[in-house]
Amino acid sequence: MNKMGTIISFTFKNKVRTKSFLITTLILILLISIGMNIPYFIKVFQGDDGAKDTQIGVVAEQGNRAAELLLSYAPPATAAADEDEDTDTVAFKAFASADDAALKQGLDDEKIEGYLTFDAKGSEGVPPVTYHSKDGELDKDLKTYLQGALQQINTQLIAGDKLTQEQVAAMFAPVSIGTQQLSTDGKDGAATDESKPVINYVIVYVLLILFFMSITMTGNMIAAEVTSEKSSRIMEILITSASPLTQMFGKVIGIFLVGLMQIAIISASIAINLMLPHNASILTDFDLDLGQLNYGILVYGFILYVLGYFLYALMYAAVGSIVSRTEDLGQALMPVMMCTFVAFYIPLFSISAPDTMLIKVASFVPITSPLSMVLRIGVGEVAFWEIAVSLVILLATTFGLGWLAAKIYRTGVLMYGKRPSIKEIRKAMKAYKI
Amino acid sequence: MEALKLEQVVKQYGDKTAVNGISLKVGPGEIYGLLGANGAGKTTTMRMVLGLIYPDGGKILYNGKPFSDELQHMMGYLPEERGLYPKVKVSDQIIYLARLRGMSAGDAEKSLRFWLERFDVPEYYNKKIEELSKGNQQKMGFIAAVVHKPQILILDEAFSGLDPVNVELLKDTVKELRDQGTSILFSTHRMEHVEELCRNITILDRSNTVVQGDIREIKKGYPREEVALRTVGELSGLDKIPGVSAVQKQERGYLLSISEIGAAQRILQHAMAAGEVEHFEIKEPTLNQIFIRAVGESNE
């Protein structure tokens, strides 16, 4: 056990001290910080904070019905109600002609964005409208707004007096569609009809991505470490100093701690970014409430992460010990990488449908179960016994694989030259005790 | 009791026999030479002694006992290819290796500093292996092999790639260790090192033991076939002497090959009759010649 500790601390220290680790971690922190502050940056670069008041001139002769309606247009009350004061407002201002001095002055002072003219009156409804501005562009939000307004006015013009203004506005109010989940077993409809809070989806997403990144990064680290020890022949000295089993688990645990530290750093940088004052509203903006978080998922997620990590790390270590040169490593790792991809993409693509048969099966198969189970616990329906069975299968597989990997490791690290065939490995494996 | 004893050890890789029934004994404070052409089975033998691979037949005994994991602490190994982490500091990895072999961190540190002083390179303590020259990397490898004060030391081609000054330094160190009672199994291609260091040797040729024993005894077993002669004046008629098979004129004097030992006396008489003799020597066969003959003969 003492030797194990020595190996763990040696592996950990050497990995953490490498430039590549420092740089990767820094880049990750930087990306997270930039990503989380993008909404803020956008605000800063647009140079405004809060509401934007746009003034649009409306150039029309007296008696133009469409222009009159536009001037008195108010956006539907429903849309404005649940938004805060930051909502942009558009004010229309009437001018008799495009040559009006006040209009020119307003455009020069940039108080007025542009103005609208109406073409000659068409048959019915709102005649075609032209927007004039200095840069000749109509920004998207404004265009949507104008379209909405004109559309409503159009209806009003055509419907005439048959409908009141309120009725027209009601026509344009969005129809709301609610959802309610039916209880399949029929025993407790009330409990199941509350849908999973969004925060759980976010957490599942984050866990999936963290797990995938962590496995691929640390897995490759382990494989590269083993292969390089093998090719530099330091392995011969190591194996004569401590048993291969101790060697392998020492390395796997050491690098596990490296991965854990990286995750801790990433989590800390996310937390710090969330706590920055200008990001205070980021959670509420996205309708997230930490209070709704299913904490079980964090606990199970951690257990599944640890077990899944060991399962994959041992596979990477075993493969790393089979090849003798770092150049051959990528090719040999392909099958393991494939497993990682499958384990990652099945739950990722099923995040909106977490109760399909595919996910159910995947949550019991050891290779895919760590991530698929996280998905089911987080946003799907899962019984406790299912979690327990899945964990037991995973645990048993990890132990079995640990034994197998140690054998392959013991055998593989002493085979040099060409990549050995499976038959050769099997034969040699029988010869060595661990 | 022998520190290390191999009895009829056999190792096979598939159909190929890598080591075919090697037996040898290394006493305490002895340097044992393992010689052989490339691929003769030296490294395989050493790996079996280390417990890296298991013999398919025969026995290996350490102080009379079979291999066990505890033995790993009393063995030191310098592989032919250095076997150090290129990107890790000398101090970090050597202390690490020493700790894996059961030393405390403090003792390992002390021992490492002692050895760096011994090799006159204390400044390497904080260097990375890749920053050192090949020869110096080898010295670090040597330190890694001896830092934990092993009783059995296995050196695979320890002196290859070193300059003469460093070879001397390492040779002196090896002799010191021998005098302190370390048993050393030593392989090399350089016969002069073997003659200087080893008492007993084994010459392997394609997995078989072809010559084995005390170097002096081995040499006695080989006929003396060369005579070196230096005289004041020129000599003629040397090739007419019965038993002389070849005469080589050298810068100073002659080197004669003889087919029977009696010819040596006839050469001396002939030379003395012709003038003053400065030097006369019936040469012992060198280990080099013995090696070439032993390996060459079995190849025919």
UniProtKB/TrEMBL annotation, chain A:
Superkingdom per UniProt: Bacteria
Membrane topology: Multi-pass membrane protein
Pfam family, one: ABC2_membrane_3
Compartments, as annotated in UniProt: Cell membrane
Predominant subcellular localization, coarse grouping: membrane
Recorded GO CC terms: plasma membrane
InterPro entries: ABC-2_transporter_component (IPR051449), ABC2_TM (IPR013525)
Transmembrane segments: 21-42, 202-223, 252-275, 295-320, 332-351, 382-406
Any GO MF annotation of the entry: ABC-type transporter activity
Domain called ABC-2 type transporter transmembrane: residue spans: 19-406
Keywords noted in UniProt: Cell membrane, Membrane, Transmembrane, Transmembrane helix
Protein name per its UniProtKB record: ABC transporter permease
Source taxonomy: Bacteria, Bacillati, Bacillota, Bacilli, Bacillales
UniProtKB/TrEMBL annotation, chain B:
PROSITE patterns to which the protein is assigned, alphabetical: ABC_TRANSPORTER_1, ABC_TRANSPORTER_2
Keywords of the record: ATP-binding, Nucleotide-binding, Transport
Spans through the membrane: none
Organism: Paenibacillus jilunlii
UniProt xrefs under SUPFAM superfamilies: P-loop containing nucleoside triphosphate hydrolases
GO MF assignments: ATP binding; ATP hydrolysis activity
Domain ABC transporter: 4-231
One Pfam family of this chain: DrrA1-3_C
Family that this chain belongs to: Belongs to the ABC transporter superfamily.
Name this polypeptide is given: ABC-2 type transport system ATP-binding protein
